[in-house]
Amino acid sequence: MTFIRFLIVVFFVSNSIFARGYDVFGIGYYDVKFDGSSTNKATYFRYERRFDKVLVDIGPEEDNYFYLKPFAGIEATSKSSYYILGGIYLEDNLGQLFIGDRSNFIFIPSFGAGYYDDGNGNKLGSKIEFRTAFEISYEMQNKNRIGLSFSHISNSNISNTNPGVEIISLSYQIPY
Predict the structure, then answer these.
(1) Where does the chain have alpha helices with state H?
(2) Which band of pLDDT confidence, cut at 50, 70 and 90, is reported for residue 168?
(3) What is the band of 54 on the pLDDT scale with cuts at 50, 70, 90?
(4) pLDDT, tens digit (0-9, with 9 covering 90-100), for 63-106
(5) How many angstroms separate the CA atoms of 99 and 22, rounded?
(6) Contact, 71 vs 86, CB < 8 A?
(7) Domains of the chain, first to last
């Protein structure tokens, strides 16, 4: 039993010290409409793995605003639709961006593409869909984060039907 406790402590301590990305767990509201049109509301669930591997470094060396990094994930709804995707994201510290001093608030825009199955949910017009997302996260002392995000999924008019869907979600992010 003592050995198991030791392993648990080592796992949690080493994950925050040697973090090389984040596992993101989210829950939210699927099919948010701001124009009063009809919706096919559902509960939204998300798992995403954000890798800390820089794919593209654009911009001056002293500014990490343009370090594009990969992510992969799966999203599902309470109406049996699911979306498997991969893409790129970047992280920017909001304090550093606006006042030059680091803060605990992180801005994370992302873009991805993947396979969508509508199940009993929204018919988005294609099996290939694209997602854009904007997230603001707060980094706690243990390096875990809590985030609020707004996302849009659509097929970018590659099919005749392109209703799109908006999502608002909360996330909890754990470094690995």
Answers:
(1) 2-17, 94-98
(2) very high
(3) confident
(4) 655 688 999 999 999 999 999 999 999 998 888 878 878 899 99
(5) 26
(6) yes
(7) 20-175 (2.40.160.20)
Q: What pTM value is reported for the model?
A: 0.83
Tokens 């603001």: give the residue.
Answer: 136
Distance of alpha carbon 166 from alpha carbon 9, whole angstroms: 39
Long-range contacts from 151-158, C-beta under 8 angstroms, 24+ separation: 153/83, 153/116, 153/124, 153/129, 154/124, 154/129, 154/130, 155/124, 155/125, 155/126, 155/128, 155/129, 155/130, 156/130, 158/126, 158/128
Structure tokens at 101: 């001093």
Q: Which residue has the tokens 């509960």?
A: 43
